[in-house]
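Service request form, structural biology core

Requester: graduate student, group of Dr. S.
Request type: structure prediction, single chain
Budget code: on file
Notes: please return the result as structure tokens.

Sequence provided:
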Amino acid sequence: MKSSKGYFYYFVWMLGALVLLYYGGKFLGMMEQKTQTFYRIDYALIGEIVYAFVFGLYLSCLNGVPNRRKFHRPLLAFVFIPSFLLVIYPIITIYVKQIYIVGYYQLIQDPQLFFFGMLSGLSLVKSMFTTR
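Core staff response, request fulfilled:
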């Protein structure tokens, strides 16, 4: 990747990040207003997980657009899988009661859930592709 990528790419990326933040907040608000559940899962939880994951995917484009497929197993195994499991853990415990970890909800709250969702989206793209 060239070191002089140009200002236009970063300007467009920043505009996209602002749009993502704006509409992401609207999306989270819309999901919190829904009172129903989707297969016993609260819509607000689904919204937080999806928003964090998409934000991580978008953050991975900061270094450049994913170009060539290159599989990086250690990053996938030791970063993506644990962070993704921590993100979807509240959904897993709804269906499988045997794997309940005591103290998870005191440790992982909204900011940490967002961080792990963002980390899982970022590490998924970085472990599957190289950038231009």
